[in-house]
Amino acid sequence: MDDWRPELSRSAVLRHCPIREAELLIVPERIVVLNDEAAEIVALCDGDRTVAEIVAEFPPEAGADVTEFLEKVRAEGWLR
């Protein structure tokens, strides 16, 4: 996982919803309202940064949570 460079899958789109004042992850047949932390993580998934580089953007105590979140989102098929 250390060399994985996460990016949104071709079927996923990150959009801001001004009505909800939240970031939405739009995927087939589903819209996921992201909390601020999740939106920040997903926004960093540009295909250029490794997981380690993404984790480094957050406080050290959040590292395991960021990695776990990335794994869950990848399992859903929203990241590649």
UniProtKB/TrEMBL annotation:
Pathway(s) per entry: Cofactor biosynthesis; pyrroloquinoline quinone biosynthesis
Superkingdom: Bacteria
Keyword terms: PQQ biosynthesis
Alphabetized InterPro entries for the sequence: PQQD, PqqD_bac, PqqD_sf
Transmembrane segments: none
Coiled coil (UniProt feature): none
UniProt xrefs under Pfam families: PqqD (PF05402)
Subunit (UniProt): Monomer. Interacts with PqqE.
NCBIfam families tied to this protein: PQQ_PqqD
Protein name: Pyrroloquinoline quinone biosynthesis peptide chaperone PqqD
Organism: Nonomuraea longicatena
